[in-house]
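Fold this sequence, please.
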Amino acid sequence: MTPQQHADRHPLKTKAKAEAKFKNIAEAHSVLTDPEKREMYDQYGEEGLKRGGGGGGGGGPHMGFHQQGSSRPNQRGEGRGGGGAESHFQYSSSGGGGGGPDPFEMFSNMFGGGGGMGGGMGQQRQQQQRQQQQQQQQQQQRQRQQQQQRGGGRGGFEEQGFGQGGAEEEPDEGLYTGASFIEELTPGSFPDPASSGWTWIVQFYSPWCGHCKSMAPKWKTAAASLRGVVKVGVVDCDAHAALCKKFGVRSFPSMKAFTPTSPDKPKDYPGPREAKAVAEFALGLVTDSASLVTNLTGVKDDVSLLLKRCSGGGGRPKVPLGGGSSGSGSSSSSSSSSSSLPRASWDVCVVLLTARLDVPVMLRALSSVYQGKVVFGAARGEATAQVVANKLGLMLQTKLPVLVAVCNGDVATAEAYTGELKSEKIQTFLDGFMGGRKCAAAVRLDSSTDLAALSTKQLRAVMTAHGLVCRGCSERGDFVARLQEFVSTGL
C-alpha cells in the first residue's frame, strides 16, 4: 500500500471507505503471512477462516450452512442463544468454502499480477487446491461408507446434493432414542392420518444442529402433554434426507402438523420454540373432529336418531368427515337424518355425559380415530346429561363425567365405562368392541328382538357368538329363520 492510500491521508468524506479498504488488505496480509491461516484458507476458503476450520466443498454452486439468531459466533461459527433461531441452507454460486473476497485476488488487484505473489503463486495455489479437494472428496467418501455401515448418520443432505459446507461437531447419537410418547419416523413408517384418524405433529431435525438439541427437551415435554390426543414424531434429516426434502424442509428445526382432513397439506408451526405453544397449536387442530361428535340435548328424538346409527356401518370412510368446526366444540346437528350420517361398523355407540359445555379434546380425537367404527355423542351440562341418561335407561349414581356404550341401539345393553378417563384406557375399552363381536353377543335372542332388522353381517356374528350352526344358509332370510327357530325351540 502506498502512503497516499493510507486512511490517515484521506479527507473525512472518503476516510471511512479507505479504512474499510485498509482493513481488508490487512486481513489478507494476515492470511498470507500466517502459515496456519494460509493453510486453512487453501483448504477451506474464506468461510473456513470465519468458522475456524472445515469449509465447504470445491468449486461450483453449493448450499452453505448458515444459522440465524441473535448471538455471537463461537469457534465453529454457530450462533448461541436465541431460542427461536434456526439453521438455514443458503445458496452461493462462488467456488470454495466462502462467499467473501479472495485475499489473493485482493493483493493481485492492489499490487498487480507480477512479483512473488503473481502468476507462479496462483498456479501453485490452484494445484494445491485441486489436490486438497481430491483429498476432501476421498475423506468424505470414507465417512459416508462408515455411516452406511453404522446404519445412517451425518451427511444426508450432502448425499442429496445439499452440501453442508462446514465442519460441525460430532452429532449426539440418539437425540430421541427411547423418548416416551415420541415416534422416530422413517419413509417406511411415516404416518397416514387419513387412514389412522390421528393428528400428527412432526419435528424435522438434524442431530448436529445446536438449536435442535436445545429444542429436544421441550419437544419431549410437549409430547407428554399431548399423549393420547395428538401423535408426536421426529425425522432425522441426516438419515432421511429425501423425506425431509419431500416436505420442503429448509431449516432446522422445522415443525409441521398433519391432520386427517388434509394429510397431504401439512401446516407449518409458526410459533415460539416452547413446549406449551407447540402443544396448544397441535390441540387446536383436533377441533376439526368435533363434527364427528353428535350433540345430544335430550329434546325431541336426537337420542333415538343416534341409537339408529349404532349398527350397520361399513367401516372407516375413504374420505374423513369433519372439518370447519370451531374450537367451542360445536358438533354435528342432532336434527340431521340418521341415514345421512356415518354408522358404526362395530355396532356400538359411545355417549359422554359431562358437566362441561364443550366437547373435550380427547373425545374429539377418539371420534376421529374410530370414525366409521364407533358413533360418538355427547350430552353437555349437568341438566342435559341427566335427561339423556334417563333416555338411555341409566340412573346416574356417580359423578360426571360418565362414558356409556350401547350395542346395536338397544338401551338394555347400555354399559358404563368404569376405568380411568385417559385416552389409552378408553381405547382399550373401545377395542373390546372390535369387529362387532362383543355387540353380537349382547343381542338378546328372545321374542322382544326384531331379528329381521339386523344386517346379514350382524346375523352371522350373532350365530357365531351363540355357537349356532346354520347349514345351507346363504341369504339373510336363512339366518333370520334359523335364529327364530332357536328362539322358539332353544335348539
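The longest strand covers residues 62-68. DSSP finds 16 helices and 13 strands in the chain.
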